Amino acid sequence: MSSRAIAEVVLEGKASQGRKVSVIIPSYRGSERLVRLVKRVASLPYEDKEVVVVVDEPLREVAEELRRIGGVKLILRPKRGGKVSALNEALRESSGEVVIFLDDDVYVEDDRFIEKVLKAMEGYDIADIKKVIVDTGGILSKLVYIEYASYNFASKLMARAARRTVAVNGAAFAVRRKALDEIGYFRPSISEDFDIALRSFKAKHNFTYIENTYVLNYPPSDFRKWFKQRKRWAIGLAAWLEENFADALKTLLRMPHAVIPGLLLALPSLSSALITFVLSNHVYEKTAYLFMLTLSSLVAQALPFASILLLNIQLIYLVKAGAILTAFFVFLFWQFAASRAVKMKSYLYLYPVYFFVYQPLWLTILLAGFIRVIVLRRKSVEDWVV
After folding, report:
1. Which Gene Ontology terms cover its molecular function (predicted)?
2. Is 243 within the bounds of a domain?
3. Which of 104, 181, 216, 354 lies at 20 to 30 Å from 143 by C-alpha?
């Protein structure tokens, strides 16, 4: 075991050599959710498993609780090395033929979670695992729930239509050890899950979406934390796309039938934003109308022309409104069908808020991240170590 950044290792239970499944959980500082998750995974009845937990700068009370959990390989690091470093440290200390990666803010309800993941992985190299957002009672959790229904469906679509993927959601996914050995472990990246998925894609690994089991995923507790999370996602995605633009474009051209529907469902504000910019503000028509209106006050013969210009402007905005409403109803149908396909709730009454408020806000953050990375050349993220 490397002693570079490891303060201590606690290994309880049977020796881990030769175990088939490794469950890896990285964390910064830790929390009650981490403790709850580790206890749950350690208690799962599947015997042939090892649980590897890496915590940077652990809180004392969290470390003490984790030490009391049997059957866990616990790596406590005194300094913050970052998620990628923690994942790679855990991989070096694990031996499972299949590796399941879990974030520290998820929870596993299903007693047969590991068995079902293994069964679904037969014949596949990498898999995205279904995520279900916990409804904490507020509107934010429900909006994020709708969003994750889209993400789940996009993964299912890629699995069905292409059997390959360029992205997985790092909160819960699985990879065969053999596949990891082929492509290497995690590289320094803000979006380490996208990066490893793209390398798996380039290696022509088979991909599947696991939907017969799931993890519960907790949403940000408030919009401030949501904004912080999305800012990091935006910068990470922009940096990833900048580095892998050629591969991403090739993927789009090779399998548009899988990529485009999933992208439009995950980011429906792309369609409404495009409509808004294509049907621009028509400054010339407005200027001409004001001129003809002024002229009409002096020359009566100009009134019909001013009226025609006003009608033209109204028709333009009606067309724009009609196009956006059409996009919304297409989204409504598509999102409802997607939710049914992945067996998740619909929250139909929140679709207008999601489409017209939540999604434009997320798209704006995303585009701002692209400008920050590609134009301003700033890739650092506050309170995040790569």
Report:
1. glycosyltransferase activity
2. no
3. 104
242 touches 130 (CB < 8 A) = no
Tell me the whole-structure pTM to 2 decimals. 0.85
Phi, psi of 76 (to 5 degrees): -105, 125
Q: Note whether residue 55 is domain-resident.
A: yes
- Please state, in angstroms and rounded to a whole number, the distance separating the CA atoms of residues 200 and 196: 6
Domain interval for residue 25: 21-221
10 within a domain of the structure (yes/no) = no
In a domain, 3, yes or no: no
Q: What residue spans of 342-358 are helical by DSSP H? A: 351-353
Characterize the bridge pairing of strands 72-77 and 126-133.
unpaired
The enclosing H or E element of 290 equals helix 283-296
Q: 380, 379, 386: which is closest to 87 by C-alpha?
A: 386
**Full pLDDT tens readout for the chain, 386 residues:** 443 444 444 444 333 333 589 999 999 999 999 999 999 999 999 989 999 999 999 999 999 999 999 999 999 999 999 999 999 999 999 999 999 999 999 999 999 999 999 999 999 999 999 999 999 999 999 999 999 999 999 999 999 999 999 899 999 999 999 999 999 999 999 999 999 999 999 999 999 999 999 999 999 999 999 999 999 999 999 999 998 888 888 888 888 887 888 888 888 888 777 776 666 566 776 777 778 777 776 777 777 777 787 777 667 767 777 888 888 999 999 999 999 999 999 999 999 999 999 999 998 998 899 898 988 898 888 777 77
Joined tokens for residue 349: 């009454």
